[in-house]
Amino acid sequence: MKDILIMLLSTFGAMFILSSSIGLLRKPDVYLRISVTAKASTLGISLILVSAALFFNDYSVTTRAVAIILFVFLTISIGGHLLARAAYITKTPIWKGTKTDDLQGQYDAVTHKLYSEKHHSAIKPEKSENNI
Amino acid sequence: MSLQDYLNWVIIPILGLSVILVFIRFLKGPSLPDRVIALDMLILISICIISIYSIQTIQSTFLDVAMLFALIAFLSTSAYAFYLEQRERK
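Predict the joint structure of the above. Result:
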């Protein structure tokens, strides 16, 4: 019974990892690739680690697995956001099918600060010709 | 079919296929953030392979290595993003 549950969980986890890697290969844009990696691979890793914790059935292993899952949940999203921000600031080309770009002209090119005209943010740009 | 056979003949080949697909993106990637996100994904898949391997050889010590890899993945991604952004600043 436990073996069947471990097989099921690890199969779903491997399928999520495979779909994430296919999306990483086939998406047309760096932002879409970051989005795919940040969503699907988190679920795949946590399913495989849950299957490992279920197999050993021990307090120390379960604690390690839960710690890895929490850490991965926190850090994949933060790393993806940092990388997407760096890619937008270095002017990586956006896919031509993208309809709206809400960040256009909102980053200051020198100080890399974000401001928003529409939402009346507190940060205002000093010189408007610096904007990306 | 026992659990070890199933892990050896079904799960490990799926993960190996995904490693190959991500490595193609790592070689092809037109820009530098593509390569960085492919490197991050490679480390994440290697965490999965390590945990499957720790089930196969009944050694729970390998999960420590998986935790170390998760730490290194976050550190490398944030460092690459930081220096990618600083390179543009002059």
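Residues 100-132 of chain A form one domain.
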